[in-house]
Amino acid sequence: MFNFNVFQVSTMSGTSVKAKSAENESFLSNCIDCVVQKVVNSSYYKMRTPVKVLCLWSGILVISGIKVFFEIPPSFFSHKRNFLNIYFVKWSWLWTLVLMGPYMIATSFVYGCTMWKRTVLCAVARLAIGTLVWYTWVNVVFHFVENLTGVCLDANGLPKLAVVQKKDCLLLKSGHIWDAIDISGHAFLLTYCVLFCKSELDIQTNWKYIPTHAASHLPIGSKALSSVKGKYKLTLPAVQFLFLSNVVLGFLWEVMLVTTCIYFHSFYSKAFGAACGIISWMMTYNEWYKHKLSPGQSGEGPLGGILLAKKKNFKSQ
Questions:
Q1: What is the C-alpha to C-alpha distance for residues 110 and 120, in angstroms, rounded to an integer?
Q2: Confidence check: pLDDT of 13 > 70
């Protein structure tokens, strides 16, 4: 005979497990929401980009200047082969693409509404332009300057004028060095990555208000409105995780920029490198992306009024 009590206990047990699982997911979601809002409301995140630029530039000059006048004792960060330098700084643009790329695509998929294909394409275009900026400076301009201004010196410090390329000089027997203006690629790239991440992450300020206030931009009951709310809910865990990951990554770049200023390269090398990074950001995000014939800034789209109004408190509406 079939035991209904066993069936009932089994059903209740299964329901209890599902309820417990849902409760755990809700608790985890609330914890992540809390962490995200703590970060968004922090002074570090809320610092305006022009202020960030000023802090980066002045900090690089001051810290690099300290190295000129004072001898800094060695530490973990003073070794070029430390794992942060090898696996993160040298691959900083790749790390930025890996974490920032999905964040930009996921958010543009949401705030683009019915125009999501266009906003996603614009996000990809900004990534491509950033990659072009990195490649042009690091692999073209800096190498050109180094070859143009350099001279090959032998072990006695005497120039070998017949050698006009750095790679040819380094192929000679040991003791030969290439003495040239060496613009710091690390100072450039870390500065540019910090400003790139800052500009793209600013939309997180009002991200949580999208479901509530999308109705002010889209007709009530429309397919577009329900689509936005569905996309927001679908991508929220990924967006939050990627946001926090990129904040940590940006902070790491700032720490490594400080260590670069303390231990590596000359004062002028770091100053020129950082200046190239700042100028590149200004020419793209601060100038070009504000014009129509550009990929636009992060957050531009049907919901731009929500995401780009950084100072407005939507919660009070």
A1: 9
A2: no
